[in-house]
Specification:
The protein is mainly α. The chain has one domain. The chain contains twelve helices and no strands. The radius of gyration is 16 Å and the shape is globular.
Length: 197
């Protein structure tokens, strides 16, 4: 899953949310350097990724992209699924998306010193371009995919995946909706287990 989903699946705990958000940049046992609740967020993130990568519905989505994007298909699906979460936000939260992401940016700002350097460097771009809110539109997703393609020196051609998004829009949305319902329940159970340890 991509940024917005990981943040959402953290629940209301701010430290867990930070951990879940920064987890991609934390290697191996380095997570142990962080306070307990941030560690919980990092571990939760890893469990969510494993659950997602091995799920049959997600594999159905990635299969549709595999011919054109190879091993980048999973990354693209993560981004597309964040689009459907943002677009259908009212189904999942009573807090308007604009307020939700604004509060999240404030949380990062308040905890700037604990963020890994990579996240500190990314944050100004994320906030200035309001990435999380932009996910709600196809144009916003197109910009994200263009940025990801640039990061691969144009090798991935991920920018072109907006074509598949538009062509198979309903199929991707149905797959997201079915999968995300399962992922919400899985994440709640994982959080309970992590808290009990």
């Amino acid at each position: 899953m991509n940024f917005l989903a990981h943040i959402y699946l953290s629940g209301d705990d701010k430290a867990i949310t930070i951990g879940n958000f920064i987890a991609d940049g934390i290697r191996g046992n380095d997570y142990k350097k962080f306070p307990k609740d941030i560690q919980t967020g990092i571990i939760l993130h890893r469990h969510i990724d494993t659950f997602t990568d091995t799920h049959k519905i997600v594999r159905q989505s990635t299969k549709r992209l595999h011919k054109n994007y190879g091993h980048y298909s999973g990354v693209i699906v993560d981004i597309l699924y964040d689009h459907f979460l943002a677009k259908n936000w009212k189904t999942y939260s009573n807090v308007p998306l604009a307020k939700y992401v604004g509060d999240f940016y404030d949380l990062l700002e308040d905890n700037f010193d604990i963020l890994p350097t990579r996240v500190q460097k990314m944050m100004p771009y994320m906030v200035a371009n309001n990435w999380l809110l932009s996910y709600a539109s196809v144009d916003g997703i197109a910009k994200v995919l263009e940025g990801m393609n640039r990061r691969t020196q144009n090798r991935s051609k991920m920018n072109l995946a907006v074509n598949e998004l538009e062509e198979f829009y309903d199929a991707f949305e149905t797959e997201f909706t079915l999968f995300f319902a399962e992922l919400i329940e899985y994440s709640k159970q994982e959080l309970k287990l992590l808290h009990s340890q």
